[in-house]
Amino acid sequence: MDVGERLKAIRKLKGVSQRELAKRVGVTNSTISMIEKNGVSPSVSSLKKVLSGIPISIGDFFTLDLANIQPDLAVFPADKMPEVGNPQWSRKLVGAGVMQRLADFTRERFAPGADSGSEMLQISGEKTGVVVQGSIELTVGFQVYELQAGDGFCFDSSRPHRFRNTGSTECELCVVNVPLPGKLHQPGVS
User: Fold this and answer.
1) 87 and 141 within one domain
2) Is 75 exposed, middle or buried (0-12, 13-18, 19+ CB in 10 A)?
3) What is the mean pLDDT of residues 20-44?
4) What is the residue range of 171's domain?
5) Which of 180, 188, 182, 148 is nearest to 51 (CA)?
6) For residue 53, which of 6, 25, 99, 104 is within the disulfide window of CB 3.0 to 4.6 Å?
7) Where are the alpha helices (DSSP H) in 66-188?
8) Cβ-contact 54, 14 below 8 angstroms
9) Strand 104-110 to strand 143-148: parallel, antiparallel, or no bridges (unpaired)?
């Protein structure tokens, strides 16, 4: 399915008219119509702007399985949550495919010695979570924290940060990533 067809299908699924979408993002009705008819090919930044009026991230826009959208789905069995991590840093995304989702909620598991990567993470928004089991070393900026089961965290995720399991047992976290108002988030990205 091409960009225009996807935009039209998603816009209709969300119950947003061309006129309303144009008004929300500050463009003309004809601009939305031209994109949907593939009369123009929007730049990535223009497409992000249009998608912010739906709202849907550009990642969801291109990967959403439109044939299997279940907007009223409220329960997500463990075996149906997509894995957005790897064997060392497993991240299960709750609510994948829900177009009304305003944030990413992940259940994360760090094997002993595993970390979120050699480079510090920086994602526009806020990150909040709690350690469910085990322990984790959290670095935010120049501060290093040792968190145990039951401890929580909340910080501006545009600050450089990193997670590392320095313990000898698996660590499990529940994490919520909320984009800043007016910013689009990339689902599944911590």
Assistant:
1) yes
2) exposed
3) 91
4) 78-178
5) 182
6) 25
7) none
8) yes
9) unpaired
pLDDT at 189: 42
DSSP 83: B
Q: Under a CB-based contact definition with an 8 Å cutoff, are residues 68 and 82 in contact? A: no
Dihedral-angle region of residue 64 (phi above 0 means left; psi in -120 to 50 means alpha; beta otherwise): beta
| Strand bridging mode 171-178 / 126-133 | antiparallel
Q: CATH code at 49?
A: 1.10.260.40
Q: What is the mean pLDDT of residues 145-156?
A: 97
pLDDT digits (tens, 9 = 90+) for 173-182: 999 988 876 4
For 52-105, the pLDDT digits (tens) are 898 888 878 888 777 766 555 677 788 878 887 788 888 888 887 676 677 888
Domain termination residue (choose one: 49, 68, 87): 68
Model pTM?
A: 0.58
Same structural domain for residues 41 and 19? yes
Here the tokens at position 63 are 């990967």
Number of folded domains in the chain?
2
Give me 137's structure tokens.
């070393």
Of 50, 68, 86, which one is at a domain's C-terminal end? 68
Q: Residue 97 and residue 57: Cα distance in Å, rounded?
A: 12
Q: What is the C-alpha to C-alpha distance for residues 103 and 98, in angstroms, rounded to an integer?
A: 11
164 within a domain of the structure (yes/no): yes
